[in-house]
Amino acid sequence: MTKNIAVIRGDGIGPEIVEQAIKVLDKVAEVYGHRFCYTDVDMGGCAIDKWGDPLPEEMLKKCVESDSVLLGAVGGDKWNDVPGHMRPEKGLLRLRAGMGVYSNNRPAKIWPQLAEASPLKKSIVDAGIDFIIVRELIGGIYFGEHKTEEIDGTPTAIDILSYDEKEIERIGRIGFETARKRNKKLCSVEKSNVLDSSRLWKKVMHRLAEEYPDVELSDMLVDNCSMQIVKNPAQFDVVVTENMFGDILSDEASMITGSIGMIPSSSLGATSCGLYEPIHGSAPDIAGKDIANPIGTILSAAMMLRYSFDMPKEADAIEAAVSAYLDEGYRTADIMSEGMRQVGCKQCGELIISRIC
Ligand code: IPM
Ligand code: MG
To answer: For residue 325, what are the domain limits?
Structure first.
């Protein structure tokens, strides 16, 4: 099969981690007889520097016309003082909206080899950590109006949070469908004791539940959920939540699995053209030092093969290679522990590639 992949290397550690993921994809292509063609796309801080815009229209077009997009990370201190609509992150938000990828899937699964890297007590980790956060990605407060103005002489900042029923329903369905393919437990997370948008969210989830009688639906307030994630993560199967809550909870969920550097994500909308990115940021402090962990990006490439290209065997091969690499005791600095062998970003990529068969 031939597939066209738009590649956004981005800022900070983005270029070095994407490089490893591309090498992995090339190895998969060679072993399984596919052809992956790559188109470079500028987005984020590097696009601001080059084009004066974090996501020029023609770059978005390249992404929309591709079979899927692989992204490293964007952002960095260098662009902290640019106006909000020009920030690197704005490019990412515009990309997600422009591609219509409303459903972001973030797995929180502990690799048995990394159980010790979790900051949680052994007894909690041993109960199992294996859940998915389904995050609404192109609505809510990140996409509402943002403005700062003087009201009665006081500088005042305003960010609007709004959801309509259709936006909630389409992500709700993904939550139920995802749970249906797993352990059939869906936890809907909101703040319905305070927010109108959350009250509508809860109402829509319960209406949908009638169509999915095989899935057990529960509700949880977001503050309680953040506590339950560290207290008893084994209770979760699939969590569905709105954009900002999902952003925050998915960082928390990743940390309990050992390292944010290990977690991939997929973002999909109405078509098979998806956006695949690790959930961590651009880590400018370690950029260019060859110490970043490329596994989140490599596993994102695996998700692309599984969810957009219908290549489950190939995705399995990448995941098995990562598992073999960990079994053999190799670790990047973020997950290093006593008795293991520390490797850099490039070597990590090479070791994983040589284990793909
Ligand atoms: C993420 C990131 C982004 C988000 C930022 C960089 C805009 O934190 O993917 O979780 O908030 O969605
Ligand atoms: Mg985030």
So the answer is: 1-104+261-357
Catalytic status, residue 223: yes
Residue 157 has pLDDT above 90, yes or no: yes
For residue 193, the tally of other CB atoms under 10 A from its CB is 9
Q: What is the CATH number of the domain that holds 52?
A: 3.40.718.10
Among residues 102, 56, 59, 70, the alpha carbon closest in space to that of 4 is found at 70
In a domain, 110, yes or no: no
Q: pTM of the full predicted structure? A: 0.95
> Which atom of ligand 1 is least distant from the CA of 75?
6
pLDDT at 259 over 90: no
251 part of the active site? yes
Please indicate, yes or no, whether residues 29 and 99 belong to a single structural domain of this protein. Answer: yes
Q: In angstroms, what is the span from residue 267 Cα to ligand 1's centroid? A: 12
Secondary structure letter of residue 117 according to DSSP:
G
Residue closest by Cα to atom 7 of ligand 1? 89
Domain membership of residue 113 (yes or no) is no
Does any ligand 1 atom lie closer than 6 A to the CB of residue 334? no
Q: Is 247 a catalytic residue?
A: yes
Burial of 341 from C-beta contacts in 10 A (0-12 / 13-18 / 19+): exposed
Q: Examine the domain organization and report whether 282 and 177 are in the same domain.
A: no
Domain final residue pick, 227, 256, 285: 256
